[in-house]
Design brief:
Length: about 240
């Protein structure tokens, strides 16, 4: 009867291999959410200095509702915060003779000159989300000499806390949305790919500065392997 014992043992191993393997394959990767720059100065809702089209109160509420839903699913929420000193190089007011939306060369790169926005410790810099939703705020754009559309690093290559925080929380996939599709959402999503994360971008929870650059940004994100969803589709977000 020893033979049957061996057969049974072998059978048990095969069973464990198959079902263990299946369970492993179905093990969901850990997902984090990055809400990009949903701050007063970027919204019509708060009469912001750099208010982006379509950022009325309804938009901000839809971001908050969706973010709540994602948090309820157990996904940690991270928020980026544009956080400039008054003398920031991206403000047209710091370049005599220049006007808003002029483009200059800064450290060899094209730099759009913006109206002053998200100045540290001003109401316009406030994040318009319930603070209780957010696990960590990642500030960016503090160096007066460099802009920082990406939540991961500034244009001088200086890293923010983002990657460290996501790694510590074992995040493998990020859901990205917010303001602006063609600037900070784009840069943050693309840098997330470069840093090795799976990335999902949600279109209708994002707003862009201009339609043409926003479309270009969407195409670029798709080309880099980002899953661009029209709206919050939890099944598609969770699918591996
Ligand atoms: C942003 C312009 C300047 C953004 C930040 O959040 O997309 N755009 N600073
Ligand atoms: Zn800025």
């Amino acid at each position: 009867m020893k033979k049957w014992g061996i057969v049974l043992l072998a059978g048990a191993f095969v069973f464990i291999e198959i079902f263990g393997g299946l369970a492993m394959a179905k093990e969901a990767v850990k997902i984090g959410v990055i809400v990009v720059d949903v701050q007063g100065d970027f919204t019509k809702f708060k009469n912001g200095s750099l208010a982006v089209e379509g950022t009325d109160e309804a938009y901000v509420k839809s971001v908050e509702e969706s973010t709540k839903k994602l948090k309820a699913m157990g996904f940690p929420i991270y928020a980026t915060q544009d956080w400039h000193p008054k003398n920031h190089a991206s403000f047209f007011t710091n370049h005599p003779g220049k006007k808003a939306f002029d483009v200059i060369k800064l450290h060899g790169k094209d730099q759009v000159l913006w109206p002053p926005h998200c100045v540290q410790n001003t109401p316009g810099a406030e994040i318009l989300l319930d603070k209780k939703l957010v696990k960590a705020v990642i500030k960016k754009g503090m160096d007066p000499q460099y802009d920082s559309y990406s939540g991961f690093q500034d244009d001088g290559g200086k890293k923010t806390e983002m990657d460290k925080i996501l790694k510590k929380d074992q995040i493998k996939k990020v859901v990205v949305y917010g303001i602006a599709t063609d600037y900070c959402v784009r840069a943050t999503a693309l840098d997330a790919v470069t840093a090795g994360y799976q990335v999902v971008m949600i279109k209708n929870l994002s707003r862009g500065v201009a339609p043409d650059t926003s479309q270009k940004a969407i195409d670029e994100m798709k080309a880099k392997g980002i899953l661009v969803l029209d709206d919050l589709d939890l099944e598609k977000i969770k699918a591996n």
